Every structure is written in structure tokens, then in C-alpha cells.
Q: What sequence folds into this?
């Protein structure tokens, strides 16, 4: 039977979609939007030149417009499964002088759009009390909206602690030269626990599958998982889309 999927997250969710059969269609992919930014008001402060690819432009403009909820509402009636991963929460957010928030994505940093408000924005890093307060409020609003759209039983959240080694047993380069990502993993686990408390399904990648892909097309990274992990995630998607309980 044909199944329509929507992804809000990163390559953690997008890569495993390629493991699914032809009966699965991708309705939309909202990327590079941390939850705080996605639930913020849109901002018109950051104008600038176009980026190199349509994906980069679409992602950045979507973040600045906070288009997650409008996109979900537009597709809600056709969604068989919404897949969410929290990987982009790693980026933190900037608070802008108009009181809005945008994700500290590589697309934003490459765009040069912050130059026009130099000295007037502030970074809020994950694993801080301020970030948690903002994230918890945003999560409550997002999942409340999903419930109102009738998507509670059609949503799968992925808990994916990061890979430390590749499939070849080599160390995975740390994110942004952090010596350890243990704090981020613990932070994501708290986020997943909160989402569970809201009545949503979270599937956590087993310890033995947290292995990276050294030759990933975007390079080795703690969130670029290997084939076995991608296949496990794809199976969770298939089960959830069919209404079967997931791990």
C-alpha cells in the first residue's frame, strides 16, 4: 500500500528513507530548523545573496520564515508518517534584535546575512538552561499542534545517540572539534524523554548500531550513520507507517 512520509530533521532521517521501497513517497523534508527557531515568529531582518544549491536556499529561507507548522498543516491530511529527529538541535540558535530566533546552520553562516546586524544578535548554545527553557516551550507547542492535526499516532521520533567509531573501527571526528559529545547525547536523551512524556513514540537506536559511515557523501560525522543503523531506522519507519509498535 502506498505510504506518504514527511521528514522534519536531518540526514539521520533522510538517508534511511532511501532504504525504503518504491511504495513510500516523500511529501516534504524540513531541514536545518531547530525547534526553537521553527516555533519562533518569522524574521525579515536577514536578507542576502542566494546560496549555491536549491536545498541550501530552501532550508535557510524555510528557517527564516519558520515554515515548519504551515508545511505540516498543508500536508497533514495526506501524511501517513511524520518522522522527526533532533540532530539540528546541536546547532543552537541566535536570538535576533527583533526577538525572533534562527538556527545557527552552516547555510546561515555561509550566507553572510548576519553581517547586517553585527553585534546585535546572541548565540544560545544547547546544553544550557536557557536553551532548555526555550526548547521545552517550543516542543510543547509543536507536539500540541501535531495532536491538534491528528498526527499523534502518525509520528515517529528518532533517538539517535551519536556514533563514536566508523564501520571500519576508526574514530569519528567530533562535532565542531568537541573533545566529547557525551553532554549532547545526554541532552538529546532528556529531550526524547520529554517528548515521550507528551505521549509520542520515540525509537532509540541500539548501542551496537551507533556506528558511522566513513565514506558518507558529506563526510564522516557522529550523525552520519552506517548501513546497519540506516536499515534499522528504515525498519522503524516501515513499522510505524503500518501501525506496528516500534522498538
A:
Amino acid at each position: 500500500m502506498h505510504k506518504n512520509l514527511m521528514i522534519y530533521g536531518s540526514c539521520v532521517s533522510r538517508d534511511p528513507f532511501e532504504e525504503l521501497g518504491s511504495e513510500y513517497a516523500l511529501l516534504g523534508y524540513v531541514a536545518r530548523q531547530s525547534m526553537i527557531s521553527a516555533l519562533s515568529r518569522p524574521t525579515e531582518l536577514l536578507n542576502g545573496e542566494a546560496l549555491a544549491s536549491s536545498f541550501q536556499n530552501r532550508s535557510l529561507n524555510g528557517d527564516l520564515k519558520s515554515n515548519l507548522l504551515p508545511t505540516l498543516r498543508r500536508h497533514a491530511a495526506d501524511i501517513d508518517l511524520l518522522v522527526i529527529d533532533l540532530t539540528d538541535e546541536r546547532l543552537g540558535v541566535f536570538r535576533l534584535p527583533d526577538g525572533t530566533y534562527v538556527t545557527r546552520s552552516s547555510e546561515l553562516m555561509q550566507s553572510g546575512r548576519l553581517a547586517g546586524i553585527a553585534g546585535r544578535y546572541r548565540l544560545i548554545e544547547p546544553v544550557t538552561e536557557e536553551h532548555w527553557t526555550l526548547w521545552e516551550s517550543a516542543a510543547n507547542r509543536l507536539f500540541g499542534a501535531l495532536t491538534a492535526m491528528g498526527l499523534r499516532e502518525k509520528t515517529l521520533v528518532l533517538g539517535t545517540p551519536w556514533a563514536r567509531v566508523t564501520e571500519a573501527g576508526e574514530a569519528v571526528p567530533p562535532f565542531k572539534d568537541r573533545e566529547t559529545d557525551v553532554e549532547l547525547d545526554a541532552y538529546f536523551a532528556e529531550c526524547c524523554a520529554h517528548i515521550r512524556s507528551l505521549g509520542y513514540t520515540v525509537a532509540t537506536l541500539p548501542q551496537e548500531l551507533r556506528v558511522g559511515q566513513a565514506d558518507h557523501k558529506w563526510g564522516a560525522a557522529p550523525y552520519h550513520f552506517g548501513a546497519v543503523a540506516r536499515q534499522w531506522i528504515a525498519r522503524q519507519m516501515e513499522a510505524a507507517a503500518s501501525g506496528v509498535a516500534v522498538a
Summary: The mean pLDDT is 93.
